[in-house]
């Protein structure tokens, strides 16, 4: 259950919040599409790979997750720099929305760290439960994305 919650949080963070925040920084639309597509592809590949890992391959799964977290941290840093560079051009409403989304992004990243710790230390018997819980956690992430997207679109009107 913990493993799948970890990856669900990762998916929400990578797929959901990054495009919304990135769009609010006034970034070029074509760059936005490429970045979103890259994130979606990387995340999908990670999920497909992790679903194939058996309990005996836990170390490989942990290593793959660690690499994804490092990549996510780099993306968050780049995103924060873009926000900082465009801050003066943003409206008050866009600034507040961006603050809220960045706060949510950081909260999700903190949760990822907690789940990652659980994943590294999970028992053999819990491995399949973590895999099964992933679908539920992914649904929760999709709902969070839809909420963030709708809020952004409402603010953009």
From TrEMBL:
It comes from the Bacteria. Residues 1-23 form the signal peptide. Keywords: Signal. SUPFAM superfamilies: Apolipoprotein A-I (SSF58113). This is Uncharacterized protein. It comes from Nitrincola iocasae.
């Amino acid at each position: 259950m913990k493993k799948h919650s970890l990856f669900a949080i990762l998916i929400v963070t990578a797929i959901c919040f990054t495009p919304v925040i990135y769009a609010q920084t006034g970034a070029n639309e074509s760059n936005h599409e490429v970045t979103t597509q890259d994130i979606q592809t990387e995340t999908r590949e990670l999920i497909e790979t992790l679903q194939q890992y058996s309990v005996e391959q836990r170390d490989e799964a942990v290593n793959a997750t660690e690499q994804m977290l490092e990549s996510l941290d780099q993306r968050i840093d780049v995103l924060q720099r873009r926000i900082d560079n465009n801050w003066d051009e943003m409206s008050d409403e866009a600034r507040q929305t961006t603050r809220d989304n960045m706060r949510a992004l950081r909260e999700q990243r903190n949760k990822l760290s907690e789940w990652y710790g659980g994943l590294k230390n999970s028992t053999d018997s819990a491995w399949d439960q973590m895999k099964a819980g992933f679908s539920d956690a992914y649904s929760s992430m999709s709902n969070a994305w839809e909420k963030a997207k709708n809020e952004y679109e409402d603010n953009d009107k």
